[in-house]
């Protein structure tokens, strides 16, 4: 199954890694530490642990306040809205409502192919005079 994009947020205590690279809420690196120690810090300071980079060695987690997580989520949502994903193209097609049937079929096939390739498709149909 393809890996789903995990929503950005606190991982709570479900941390599969034994050793973590931890960054504190001010963005300073605390270096690598065992999971138990990171959880202790989280509890002491009433913070949440957030996975930043999973494919790093060891994975990077950041201690954040609920407020910081909330702001980061808003930032990411804004970014996602603003830009189509890299590799998505917007294909535009426009034709008249008086289009011949076989031309329409050709264009429909073309649109279906673009959608399969995950392109965004914008179709404009002009009213024939």
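^ structure tokens above, recovered residues below v
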């Amino acid at each position: 199954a393809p890996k789903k994009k995990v929503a950005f947020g606190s991982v709570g205590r479900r941390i599969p890694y034994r050793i973590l690279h931890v960054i504190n809420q001010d963005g300073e690196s605390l270096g690598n530490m065992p999971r138990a120690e990171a959880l202790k810090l989280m509890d002491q300071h009433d913070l949440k642990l957030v996975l930043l980079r999973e494919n790093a060695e060891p994975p990077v987690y950041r201690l954040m306040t609920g407020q910081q997580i909330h702001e980061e989520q808003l930032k990411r949502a804004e970014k996602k809205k603003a830009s189509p994903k890299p590799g998505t193209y917007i294909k535009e097609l426009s034709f008249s409502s008086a289009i011949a049937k076989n031309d329409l079929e050709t264009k429909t096939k073309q649109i279906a192919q673009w959608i399969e390739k995950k392109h965004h498709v914008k179709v404009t149909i002009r009213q024939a005079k």
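Residues 66-82 form the longest helix (17 residues).
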